[in-house]
Specification:
With about 70 residues, the chain is of the alpha+beta class. The protein has one domain. Helices cover about 25% and strands about 15% of the residues. It is built from one helix and two strands, in the order E-H-E. It has a two-stranded parallel ribbon.
Amino acid sequence: MPHLEGNGAKVVFVDNIYVYGRSPGRKVTEDTPKNPHTKKGKIRLQLNRMLIEAHQRGVPTLICHFPDFYGPNE
C-alpha cells in the first residue's frame, strides 16, 4: 500500500470471514489459521497481507472480520 506512510493515514478495513475458509468446527478466533478455499477468500487474504505489511511499516491499521448475517433471526 504505497503512499500511506508519512501522511498520517489510518486504515480501517471491514472484511468478511472468507479468509478463514471452511469452518474448523469451533469458534473462529484471531488465532484461527486463515485458509481460504474460494477465489474471494484468496483475494481477501491478499488484501489482509497487504494491510498487515502497511501496519508493520507504521501505518495504524485495523482489520475487522464480520460474519454474514441473514434475516431477522440469524
